[in-house]
UniProtKB/TrEMBL annotation:
Domain Peptidase M28: 386-592
Annotated localization: Cell membrane
Ranges of biased composition (kind: Polar residues): 773-782, 791-800
Any single biological process term in GO: iron ion transport
Biological source species: Lates japonicus
Annotated membrane topology: Single-pass type II membrane protein
Membrane-traversing stretches: 69-89
Alphabetized Pfam families for the sequence: PA, Peptidase_M28
Chain intervals for the UniProt region annotation (Disordered): 37-59, 773-800
Classification via SUPFAM superfamilies: PA domain (SSF52025), Transferrin receptor-like dimerisation domain (SSF47672), Zn-dependent exopeptidases (SSF53187)
Protein name: Transferrin receptor protein 1-like protein
GO cellular component: external side of plasma membrane
Keyword annotations: Membrane, Receptor, Transmembrane, Transmembrane helix
Family: Belongs to the peptidase M28 family. M28B subfamily.
Amino acid sequence: MDRVRSAFNNMIKSERYSRFTLQPAEDGERHVEVKLSDDATDDGMEVEGQAGGSPSFRPAPLRQNRRHLFYMVLVTLLIFVTGYLVGYVSHRKPQVEPVNPASENENRLQATPTDYAPSPEIQLDWKDVTQLLSQKLTSKAFEKTLRDFNLPRRSAGSAEDMNQANRIFDEFKKLEMDPWSDIHYVQLQMPDSNRPNRVLFGSDVFEPAGYLAYSATGKVEGKLVYGNYGRQEDLDVLQKKSVELKDSVLLLRSGKISFAEQVDNAAKKGASAVLIYPDIQDYKYLADTALYGHVHLGSGDPYTPGFPSFNHTQFPPTQSSGLPKIPAQTITANMAFALLQKIEGPQSDVSSGFKGGFKSVSYSLGGSKNITVEVNNMLVNKEIQNVFGIIKGFTDPDRYVVLGAQRDAWGNGYARATVGTSVLMELAKAVCEMVEKDGFRPRRSLVFASWSAGEYGNVGATEWLEGYMSSIDKKVFTYISLDGVVLGRGNFTTSASPLLYSLIENTMKEVNSPLGLGSVYDMVGRNNWEAILKPMAIDDPAYPFLAFSGIPSVSFHFISPNTESYSYYGTSLDNMDHLNYQTNQRTAEMTAVAAQFAGQMALRLVHDHMLNLDVSRYSSVLYKAVVRVYRRINQLLRSGQLKDVSPNWLSRARGSFQRAADDINRAIVNTDLSDKEACRILNDRIMAVEHTLLSPYVSPVETPFRHLLLGRGSHTLASIAETNDMEQLHTQLALATWNLQGCANAMRGFPPGLQQLRAAQGARTDRRKELFSAQSSSSQMRRPSIHGLLQVTSSDLSHS
């Protein structure tokens, strides 16, 4: 007892104390941090507290007799044990704690790693992860899910669309994915049932059931001209044949490019209206099938360009620069056949490729007979919902991979919407189960998104991007589109950011071929796999993520051999029977393979320490683009059309980009993967690549697709290589050069220009030392003049 009393007296007489410091957290709340002195434990905990000072106290020594001392020891121990147990239970955090990446939703995007408990190390290696995923994504499971999500109709903003959204929300809630919805109020264009759209040609009067959303309205008359697919090269053929395009009505067959691009090309040539039909050479279905689509050369709600449609009353009336100014209408193949029989005019050359599948017509170019087009579409205000669920990461929960699928369609939309939604839901279930039951610990978060109004030009997805434009690129590092992943069986195509090329290639090698032999990589040809990489089209669901928001994105499609597209898109024939025919009655099996492909890409991105984004894959893409500009400028200089412009600065900027990419690759090799902070800093540098390729010199309202290499507009390197406007070339070349140089600087991890300033500063220091050394050797020390120092500075800067 004497020893116990002596020890206790020593303890209470020591200089031990507690220090309370008020710490502001990143979420704006204040916390009191409890720290013990050096002779106590180093562990601390955070509890909520009010703003105030940081009081410190030191208990005075107690003087009690032995009996009181004994009871005090017992009471102190009892209080300590009770407090510890209460604190442990009340502050313990669950294994998987949801994080919300959007807010009512802005606050949900601001989660930081410090908001969560320290995470355990990932317990599964990559082989275990892929095996678990393939075990859970079975064709049997997809047979049921495909049936459950198959609807006869699902137009955007309809009761069916809203019911589907609620169902997905409930499924995410059952999986404890902390679901939320983004609600937008958008304007969608629809036919007027009281005033149908019409086409009048001689005695023929047609009232097509299909239509093109966001067409200009009105009634126009002009000479009927056949223009093949309406590509630039097709319209050049017409002009060479001396067919007048100004004020004409162009008859075009669907395919090769989007409806919006067809109408835009026609408008640039002065056409007054456009008719589009599915030629039987390209579309092997009933000739009276109606065709649906949109002609907005952009994405999102065209009446709130660049900002979200949360409430139209907040914003002044404005329109997207991509809205067409001429009427456009779809007609059936039978209607087109009737027009082509009577069109007359000169014949096209066989080599031009103008002749379609109608054997009894010559596909004359026309230009002699008038036709009238009347479009009476009307704008309708609709409420749409995007639905989200999340599986939170354990190391960097504020970094997200987003997997998204369109929920709406013109009709049944089996391939367009049912398959993608089914993949979205089964992937969510599989990954949740892997986390809850199998010990999978993703380092980063996965967001599962169901979009509405995709048929009108990715409206739902784009409105979400616009709503969080200032922060989303700092949080979302990859988007994986699940739209149209199964369109057939036997071949595979993909469109993606070059940053994802290596990930796609590796995933192709790991996912088994649906044909039963080897991998997907073997199926497409091991020596020719890059042939499946297609440029991302403007109507690709992943395109606004890449070209508008600067997020590395990918879309992919299992498709039938020798086909370029799915012919039933935009028709009432996009149903289960037709897709089963394309997949040889193996739609569920193909959907399971597609889900494994998307799942492996997503899980690889959240599993590894370093982001699986290969910056070196941009080198060849950038080199080809710069070479085109270089040759064009030299050509203009030799012809005398251009003066006082050099392409060398752009070449140097490309060199800076290449050196920055090499620097990142070296850093990846040399980084200690156990150092979480070092990995995060390096991953942030990798994430900066795509976003800093967006031009800061153009407006997202006027030019939404701002990507320097993959966007659309006069700012792109492709446009600079083709323009005939010398003044525009001067300006855009300078802006593109610094855009690229700024990207290289961001990749190096410091502000633009700092590298050059550091180099110049070092050179100036060396020159000044030499200057002062020479002056000190003379009998009379003289300080250098300001003029002299400025000369040194200017010289050094020019050399650097």
